[in-house]
Amino acid sequence: MSSVTSQPSAAAPAQDLSSPAPKYPITDKVREAMNISLRGCEELLPETEWLHKLARAEATGVPLRIKLGLDPTAPDIHLGHTVVLNKMRQLQDLGHTVIFLIGDFTSMIGDPSGRNTTRPPLTAEQIKANAETYYKQASLVLDPEKTEIRYNSEWSDALGARGMIQLAAKYTVARMMERDDFTKRFKAGTPISIHEFLYPLMQGYDSVALRADLELGGTDQKFNLLMGRHLQQEYGQEPQCILTMPLLEGLDGVEKMSKSKGNYVGITEPANDMFAKLLSISDELMWKYFTLLSFRSEAEIAKLRREVADGRNPKEVKVLLAKEITARFHSARAADEAEADFNLRARGGVPDEIPEVSLPGAPLAIGALLKQAGLAPSTSEALRLVDQGGVRVDGAVVSDRALKLSSGTYVVQVGKRKFARVTLA
């Protein structure tokens, strides 16, 4: 891992990329790279600058430096996180250098983006543990052999108090307060800590240290990404372009995908669960998932859209999506087996392998049984499932919440995917 100085040296002034006459030819290959860049993205700013950067890279053979910074605030990645990672992989496949930046320093500040309260910073131990699993999971999307891994503590720790003050002098409080979440909190009288102003500054400084040509992020990161452009110009560097990707709605099709909302698909969860969850999305949301998550070409996706419009069952197309994503994070064989398992359950069948649970206390009430067998988080939730007709014992729907089961072995099912073979004694 190469070292980075705390105060990057000034580079030659950037050329005027907004000029209508590009310095390098705009070839068909450059246009194709531009189309790949734009696929599914929310904004690419400024587009002309990025086009000229792509042209320069092709003409000179010098790959562009593309940065994605992620704070390891949680150890697990879901499909919503992979939207930006997929774009990184597409640009990586074009031959450019992708930099997976782990924000071990900025994690200790806590990113206030989109929040109405201060987020508690993580401890160094939490950051280290999360970062270890974070990149391992991200490598399921990125090519690890072609990915530059960096930690922003490399240059942020080296700044020291003097460097931090010098950095803070390059931006005004008035400009910082233009950020939407800060403005709302200020008007509402919600406290804003001084250290929160440091987060966008430090994220922007990462771009200076890495000499990034492009930085990617979600739509909620736009202010921070633009900070990188500003600071690069302050340090005499050619400013990076920014590319924002939309936030992916979760399985409910309403809220953004989030573990806290329970509408997520984790990239390390079992293949059967991943496949079944993806089949549960709406027919309309399926097309957004195709655009943002599938590696199929836009022409292929457009063809599938036409086929559905002409009468093809949308479930058939959704199966293609579910199998592609399941195979990416598991294997083609696992995806085939997940499809077979789903079809078996849909016909009311019992999978070959289900958890075996032994419980004492017969006769045992159905609510307590479901909780103790791990099929429901609580007795009250178990009884709610009974009331909704979502519980079966040996294939028969349970309608009596007062049911007690005597000693014996039963196949208990909750919903379509949860099974257990329960032996009561």
TrEMBL record:
Its EC number is 6.1.1.1. It is found in: Cytoplasm. SMART domains: S4 (SM00363). A motif ('HIGH' region) lies at residues 72-81. ATP binds at K259. One of its GO terms (molecular function) is tyrosine-tRNA ligase activity. It is an enzyme of class 6 (ligase). Its main location: cytoplasm. It comes from the Bacteria. Residues 364-425 form the RNA-binding S4 domain. It catalyses: tRNA(Tyr) + L-tyrosine + ATP = L-tyrosyl-tRNA(Tyr) + AMP + diphosphate + H(+). Catalyzes the attachment of tyrosine to tRNA(Tyr) in a two-step reaction: tyrosine is first activated by ATP to form Tyr-AMP and then transferred to the acceptor end of tRNA(Tyr). This is Tyrosine--tRNA ligase.
